[in-house]
Amino acid sequence: MNTIDLLRRLIAFDTTSSNSNQALIDFATEYLSGFGAVCSFSHSDDGRKSNLLATIGPQDRPGFVFSGHTDVVPVAGQAWTSDPFEMVERDGLLYGRGTADMKGFIAAVLAAVPQMAEQGSERPFHIALSYDEELGCLGAPRLIEQIASLPYRPLGCLIGEPTGMKAVTAHKGKSAVRCHVHGKECHSALPQNGVNAVEYAARLIVHAADLGRRQRESGRQDQRFMPPYTTLHTGVVTGGTALNIVPRDCSFDLEVRAIPGDDAASFIEQVKDYAETVLLPEMRLQAEQAGIRWEGLSSYPALDMDDDHPLTRLICQLGGDNATATVSFGTEGGLYQAAEVPTIVCGPGSIEQAHKPDEYIAREQLARCDDFLSRLIRQVRTGRLDWGEL
Fold this sequence. Notes:
CATH class of the largest domain: Alpha Beta
CATH architecture of the largest domain: 3-Layer(aba) Sandwich
Number of strands: 18
Largest sheet: 6 strands, mixed
Mean pLDDT: 96
CATH superfamily of the largest domain: Zn peptidases
Number of domains: 2
Strand content: 15-25%
Order of helices and strands: HHEEEEEHHEHEEEEHEEEHEEHEHEEH
Helix content: 25-40%
Shape: elongated
Low-confidence stretches: none
Distance between the termini: 33 Å
Number of helices: 10
């Protein structure tokens, strides 16, 4: 099957993150096994979702990873003009949920498998398909554990997020948490008898915003990004039951997006420290049962590849563009780099089309990706990924 045919098949699987991705994984496994791939799996805690790691070629030497996530964002509430899970072509544009982010790349990789499977390859190819990237790269750590268990650590990894086929060498890291503030409810006419969970949550939110403001005004700056500093953001707040009741409970979601070199988790710890040392003592003077609890939501490190790394230069050379780029969105790339696998993000389509109604990818972008992958596979097959030789 060619890339377009494979993309049509992949789009038909509704792999919205709330659903299982197992049907897509089963399809990819059967397809890859037909070309002699050795497949292994890791699973979510509830067993509903799977990562797939498929290896093609010799396993007694380091190879190269093609990585993509199988989940897509929801379509509920979006005004689609066609069925989002049935690929439709109009004027050279292919519409469907996941066409750009990022089943287009996965389809191109699968279409290139016959070339990978040709006899005589000097190095193996690894195809890594993950679950729950859209929820904060939740599946990738287990997939990378599989990769770390390979006899040889891969020489490089290509993550095909939509970049217009431009080599992306850096993105911010992220840490996200949910804070649960527990106070004491009472009649609002006697607020001195209660502990207002909403007000204490608000003080935490303002403290986080002040940390973010200090980063903007005097923190480290990295002009490769926009904005060029680490940000703190509260996106969801829930609390209270009625205006005449001092609220007992309130929760809010806080995220940090950190430039390379800043530790996102350290900013979360500063907010936690304020809660423990300043707010909790005040709350418990009024009610011993008062408390503040934290729940981790997601976390991944920044990606920061050197523009002079041989992998960077190779990807730029094969793509015909010497300039690299950075992106504001996160990927699984930082996790691969943390596992000592050099990683570049480069794939077809545009992030501007992702997550929207009538998401699409241009045929021209898929054709560029097909050509690029063919050239890269030739490099891997001939063994020319020994960085000292480039």
